[in-house]
């Protein structure tokens, strides 16, 4: 398995991509002379899990568009990332379709006026669910790290909740902040 000790800055994943630029993950991996990729697992309109509904400030019965991806490093699965978007923003758009979005979801949302102005992240751990264990090729007793990210637009309205499930082995979560 490739060495997963790496440092990442969340900010690059919140900024729209310019024309012709690779997605943020592919770009970050290439900087380390690696190959980053993603495989779309599913996309569509669903009833959100309770934590997602609360985070996005949804009323009872409101749906979300969910996009789940298997994130690869040198063709080895390293993360499952599932993004949830309020249906009022994403239903009937490319976000709800099971296909790659040129420029990525961040660029697609920015083109529609939803530019990230704030983010809240939380990190936790747990034992993986069976499908996570299978997709990430984990052993019976290997835990996962969970990075949850809530993206807010300029008016502090939530536009995306993303849960990233990662193999915890040899993984360090490090944050950088720019002040001023």
Describe the structure.
- Strand 2 (64-73) and strand 3 (76-86) form a beta hairpin.
- The protein has helices at 24-31, 50-55, 87-90, 104-111, 130-135, and strands at 36-46, 64-73, 76-86, 116-126, 144-153, 158-167.
- The chain is built from five helices and six strands; from the N terminus they run αβαββααβαββ.
- Strands 1-2-3-6-5-4 form a six-stranded antiparallel sheet.
- The chain has 180 residues and is α+β, with helices and mostly antiparallel strands.
List keywords for this structure.
180 residues; 5 helices; globular
Offer a concise description of the structure:
With 180 residues, the chain is α+β, with helices and mostly antiparallel strands.
| Spans where pLDDT lies below 50 across 5 or more residues | 1-7
- End-to-end Cα distance: 39 Å
Number of strands: 6
Number of distinct helices: 5
Mean pLDDT: 88
Residues in helices, as a percent range: 10-25%
Radius of gyration: 16 Å
Order of helices and strands: HEHEEHHEHEE
How would you write the strand order of the largest sheet?
1-2-3-6-5-4
Shape, per Cα inertia axes: globular
Task: Assign the structural class, choosing from mainly alpha, mainly beta, alpha/beta, alpha+beta, or little secondary structure.
Answer: alpha+beta
Strand count, sense and barrel status of the largest sheet are: 6 strands, antiparallel
Which band does the percent of strand residues land in? 35-45%
């Amino acid at each position: 398995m490739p060495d997963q000790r790496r440092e990442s800055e969340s900010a690059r994943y919140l900024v729209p991509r310019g024309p012709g630029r690779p997605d943020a993950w592919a770009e970050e991996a290439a900087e380390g002379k690696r190959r980053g990729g993603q495989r779309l697992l599913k996309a569509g309109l669903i009833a959100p899990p309770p934590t997602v509904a609360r985070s996005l400030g949804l009323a009872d019965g409101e749906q979300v568009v969910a996009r789940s991806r298997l994130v690869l490093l040198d063709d080895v699965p390293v993360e499952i990332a599932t993004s949830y978007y309020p249906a009022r923003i994403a239903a009937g758009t490319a976000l709800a379709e099971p296909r790659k979005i040129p420029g990525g979801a961040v660029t697609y949302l920015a083109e529609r006026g939803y530019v990230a102005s704030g983010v809240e992240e939380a990190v936790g751990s747990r034992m993986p669910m069976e499908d996570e264990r299978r997709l990430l090729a984990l052993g019976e007793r290997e835990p996962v790290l969970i990075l949850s990210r809530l993206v807010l637009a300029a008016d502090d309205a939530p536009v995306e909740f993303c849960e990233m499930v990662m193999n915890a082995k040899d993984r360090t979560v490090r944050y950088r902040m720019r002040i001023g």
